Amino acid sequence: MSLRAKTKNPANIFSHETLLHIFESLSSRDIVALERVSKSWKSIAQNSSVWHNLFLSEFGKNRIRRRARISKARKNWKNEFKSESNWNSGNCKKEVFSLSKNQNICLTKEPADEAKFKVALLHEGRVYTCNTKMLYEWSFNENKMTCLNTISFPEEYKSNSPITMCVDGDNFYIALETGAVLHTKLTQNGFSDLNSILHIDSPLKSLSVRHNLLCGLTKDKSLCMFKNKSLSSISFQLLGKFSVSGVKDPISIHIELDLSRSRKILIVQLAYSEYVIAHGWTIGLQEFWITDSTIVKNRVGQRQVSDIVFSSQPASGVYQQGPYVLSSHADNTLMLHYISSGLDSSRIQWGIQLRGHVCGVEKSKLFECGKIISVSRNCTEICLWDLQNFREAEEFRPFMIESKLIFSRYIQDYEQSKTHVQDIELFDDTVMITLSDGNVMAFLFYA
């Protein structure tokens, strides 16, 4: 062999196409190692098609199809592979932010009880908080929490504690302890004017809005439903008020639009914790159908005792995502149910019970991508679950979903404090949790 052949750079022996074909059949560990050989090999190893094939082989096509956060514009498959690997291994970076101590906002001139944030809402990567005087919008970017916009309450509503908030598109609603409901629009430049649009005799403790329908549950256990009667402005009219005094807190209000029939139908589903004599606690359902501003159906969800798993304690949290109802329980479990709604009846079918917490679950949330985030009381434990075949499952008796606990970490920071979880959100590759002590915890799975 000649001296020239011996000293030839091995990185140049194969053509670009040949190397690309070879790299596409290697493991992720091999590809990362080959990136260090030369600049040319590094550029090939970072080719999107290489990591796209790895993603398919490792996580499967079904997972890509059901992952809502992967859009057509997002083509960095290496980052996708790293992110999904981090989800599976629980590898993430934790950040804690104190909103009241943020340098971009000064609350020192206000009394301590008025400066404290009363409620918080997470929506599309934004954090919305308000005290008795103002509404704040926060942005999380580059591992920093920044206050983007603020707006003051109308003078006559200042010093009234907010109880709950909700958002639909660019319409933002705040329910106050006096029974008033305030509205503002989210714009690129901040908030529009904050005005009162409703006043209810009994204050609302939960609020939900979708498809121009606003539903609220009052403290005296009445479900109020309002329809926006104007396309150009916010002007709600009362559709109905129903007593639901027999249900047990917590309660989830879910609004769905059904276009499968000849007429557009709005379906309001009220999911709650219910006790069944001689069995225990489970999930109950009350459903309302609305057509042309008229309530045409009002019925209770049916179930078979043999098809339901019961808990010894009532649910500490109830959350509905599409036809799935997720309940959290103080006995360290989560329960997932499925609601099937037809012309003749609505049925609640048993799904799956998730076990893995060592402390009572305080709050949990199910997302469209098939992941569940659950938090124990005092925020001592946070678990993330991945539900396989979330979109593909067609049979729900039994509910054949493979569950996998993918992250469980003991959070010692809040072990002794008596803080409560206000809201949970998953956006891109970040989990955010807002707490009643004014802090926000962020877990970055792509960091």
TrEMBL record:
The F-box domain is annotated at 8-54
> Cross-referenced SUPFAM superfamilies, in alphabetical order?
F-box domain, WD40 repeat-like
UniProt-listed Gene3D superfamilies = 1.20.1280.50
PROSITE patterns named among the record's database cross-references:
FBOX
Pfam families referenced in this protein's UniProt entry, alphabetically = Beta-prop_pof12, F-box-like
Q: Which domain of life is it from?
A: Eukaryota
Q: What is this protein called?
A: F-box protein Pof12
Q: Which organism is it from?
A: Schizosaccharomyces cryophilus (strain OY26 / ATCC MYA-4695 / CBS 11777 / NBRC 106824 / NRRL Y48691) (Fission yeast)
